[in-house]
Specification:
This is Alpha/beta hydrolase. It comes from Lusitaniella coriacea LEGE 07157. It holds the Pfam family Abhydrolase_1. There is one protein chain. It is built from 9 helices and 6 strands; from the N terminus they run E-H-E-H-E-H-E-H-H-H-E-H-E-H-H. Helix 1 packs across helix 9, helix 4 packs across helix 5 and helix 5 crosses helix 6. Helix 7 links the parallel strand 5 and strand 6. It is an alpha/beta fold and about 250 residues long.
Length: about 250
């Protein structure tokens, strides 16, 4: 029997989907969860606004607010949507999204590429170490290919010439920010920075390991924390219609 989703996972990085599967499998054992995907093509302008419009077209057809969650830029999109349409969001779970929410692995990669006198391949190899730790050469080569695809088709708002910024702060919905203790991209300082913005039901959770893709290495532990967060919420939460936080990029 078909069951309407209670939660929606946002993916705007098709090349990185494999790192989400174990967590989604765990969550699907506890609740009905759907996936919303967006793929950037070379012929399209890089625009979070386009993705937000398409996401709204999907969510406004739902008969009730959903739990939104996503990793990295998927989480950023969820945050921007919750700021704009809080009445349509049951809660917000952000994975590897710091208090300055536009920062992602690509922002670090382009900064390194601009500063270091190294080739693209050398910088990507160092990025693999930052994201996953030291890997055997065949695995590292495969991961570099994945990151190259992500540079080509993800919605990350960064380029070699410009790193985008999004105003810090949460949204007028219950929020959970998750990260890893050993993440070099969303380091503990960026994760703990959320505490300045927390509301009564909000929380910050730090995984003991796993770096940027901690949900891939610790899917059950991460899933248990997310389910506990959802279960801590009251049956219904009223949301204000007004937008409390700016959502413009600069």
């Amino acid at each position: 029997m078909f069951q309407l989703p209670n939660a929606l996972w946002l993916n705007v990085s098709p090349a990185l989907k494999k790192f989400d599967r174990a967590l989604l499998k765990y969550l699907s054992q506890h609740t009905a969860i759907a996936q919303w995907e967006y793929s950037q093509t070379p012929d399209e302008p890089l625009s979070l606004e386009i993705a937000l419009t398409l996401l709204h077209d999907y969510l406004k057809q739902r008969d009730r607010p959903l739990h939104l969650l996503g990793h990295s830029t998927g989480g950023l999109l969820a945050l921007l949507y919750a700021r704009r349409y809080p009445q349509r969001v049951r809660s917000l779970t952000l994975l590897s999204v710091g208090v300055h929410p536009a920062i992602d692995w690509q922002a670090h990669y382009y900064a390194q590429l601009q500063l270091l006198p190294c080739s693209r391949q050398r910088v990507l190899a160092q990025t693999i170490t930052n994201l996953f730790g030291h890997q055997a050469r065949p695995i590292a080569r495969e991961l570099i290919q994945i990151l190259e695809r992500d540079l080509d088709c993800s919605l990350s708002p960064h380029t070699l010439y410009r790193r985008a910024k999004v105003d810090p702060g949460g949204a007028d919905v219950p929020l959970m920010a998750c990260g890893a203790q050993d993440d070099l991209i969303i380091d503990p300082h960026l994760l703990q920075g959320w505490k300045t913005w927390l509301k009564a039901r909000d929380r910050v959770w730090q995984c003991p390991g796993g770096r940027y893709f901690f949900h891939y290495f610790y899917p059950q532990l991460t899933g248990e924390q997310i389910i506990e967060f959802w279960n801590s919420l009251p049956a219904q939460t009223s949301h204000k219609e007004t937008q409390l936080y700016p959502s413009s990029l600069s």
